[in-house]
Amino acid sequence: MNFELLEQSVQYTFSSESYTNGKLTRTLKNVAKDATASALAQVGQALSSLQGDTLSDAILIQKQNIKLV
Question: Cα 34–36–10 angle (5° rounding)?
């Protein structure tokens, strides 16, 4: 049996005193299947810079099909 990658998204967590509980989570869908960890980190850092906060976490979320045959 093998896995087949169907889709993936990335979840960023940003920190700032202006957010409720000090954190804000954003999820971006339709991440390219060949995206690298460094590219995803760069996107998170760019968003953080635009928002004026700190990137505290990035999680890659994958949805995979299990091929049964």
Answer: 90
- Specify the DSSP class assigned to residue 69: -
User: Could you tell me which of 20, 67, 46, 63 has the C-alpha nearest to residue 12?
Assistant: 46
User: What tokens were used for 4?
Assistant: 């087949």
Q: pTM of the full predicted structure?
A: 0.90
Domain boundaries, the chain: 2-67
Cα separation, 62 vs 69, whole angstroms: 21
Determine contact, residues 44/19, Cβ cutoff 8 Å.
Answer: no
DSSP 7-63: EEEEEEEEE-TTSGGGEEEEEE----TT--HHHHHHHHHHHHHHHTSEEEEEEEEEE
Give the mean pLDDT per block of 10 residues along the chain (69 residues).
95 96 97 97 98 98 94
